[in-house]
């Protein structure tokens, strides 16, 4: 219960607080183990090396949680007179949330490809890349099918109980977010390499650029009085586009030295 506070702001701050707390607790759980890594017959990484590998990954996860709160924060500032006729702010935010609640069903399996890189990329990088491409084709194909045949609307109205207006907003936003599996799959190639070769700083940098892009594009649309469910989804998707290209540039030296890529 928000106890008189803005309920949207309460949700935003609660999500941010929960993710920051999770990062802190992970760090606290590792701290007692500092200096105690031991192994027989192998080079043992120091606590500093392990922390240097872990912290950018944790930061990347934390940054993912900032995207939606930023978008919702800007949307609460929209003047009611700028909303489409018959649409309320609650319906706009609820529709966007419907679309985003559907996204993990598609992108979560795609994100697990990074674990395949860690386990198999050193022995068969080409095979892992083939798997990544095939998974991307399947996910994008199913996404297009669901988004443009009315299945998304059936899910929103039937399983989540959304009304017609909210469902329509969610369907449009979900179609707009088609860039996510395309660019997240591409990005995960570079994430996978970074995890495999323990060069994770680029992941944190790219994630920061993603959040910065979401903020800047939302601010731009808001100032131009163009912020809507569609442009909010565009802002969210643009963050992943920028993150992908930053990942390409940030891993260029590593790929050239380790894989001989140009």
Features:
mainly alpha, single chain, 262 residues, 12 helices
Written description of the protein model:
The protein is globular. The chain is built from 12 helices and no strands. The protein is mainly α and 262 residues long.
Helix-strand layout with pairing:
Blueprint: H1 7-30, H2 47-64, H3 67-75, H4 89-102, H5 104-111, H6 113-148, H7 151-159, H8 164-176, H9 179-196, H10 201-223, H11 229-250, H12 252-258
Question: Averaged pLDDT, please?
Answer: 85
β-strand percent reads under 5%
Query: Count of DSSP E strands?
Result: 0
Number of helices: 12
* Structural class category: mainly alpha
Regions with pLDDT < 50 over 5+ consecutive residues?
none
Structural shape: globular
What sequence of helices (H) and strands (E) makes up the elements?
A: HHHHHHHHHHHH
- Biggest sheet descriptor: none
Short description:
The protein has 262 residues and is mainly α. It has twelve helices and no strands.
